[in-house]
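WARN no homologs supplied; continuing
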Amino acid sequence: MTNILVIYYSAYGHIFQMAKAVCQGAEKVHDANVKLVRIPEMDSEKNRTPYIDKEANRNKQTGVSVRFKVVDRFDKYVTALEWQKDVPIATNEDLRWADGIIWGFPTRYGSMPSQVQLFLEFATDLCGNGDLEGKPAGIFTSAGSIHTGHESTILTSMVPLFHFGMIMVGLPYSENPEYLTGDAIGSSPYGASTLAGPDGSKTPDERELIMAKRLGMRVSFVATALKKNPIQVISV
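OK structure emitted
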């Protein structure tokens, strides 16, 4: 069996939906054993952006906050937490268990959210011991508009994963004609993504879900191949 871990953080549910599609794709590979886990929220509600936005904008919304509808999004946030309550919390042991890992999280200023960054910082032992070296990885994300991080978030998030020694897997043009379009949808050669809308009101497009499934399948294929033929480090 090839163990595939789909690990994600989702504030408003878009990444959770994409994660389930990634799992479906990974499961299509023969002998793939797929596990879905989530990166937890900040312990204190005072450190969670949706709560901060709600308090700051209870009686006053100006500028882009009007377009983002931050107060309305708080209700979506609470609902999304309820959807995910039965998904196990990710641990370092999950990462050790996996032969391939697919990471999902929304964009925050063109990079990964602080919740994910903190999770990786607490995985220092895995980096020092080389526990993730040679394991294939893919990344999927979400963004509020077509200009706010679909590509930069995936690219910048590859940097810490390279420190762990992971091998990055993307979405080639020839296999993903869906993103070769003028339509406002997510995904790119770097990984799968979904367009959430400035106010978070959109749900993943079927084409985005298809590409998320393909990402899961590609990482699963690569992990299976590498498990049969591990990378051999040759001294020079």
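The chain has one domain: 2-45+82-228.
OK
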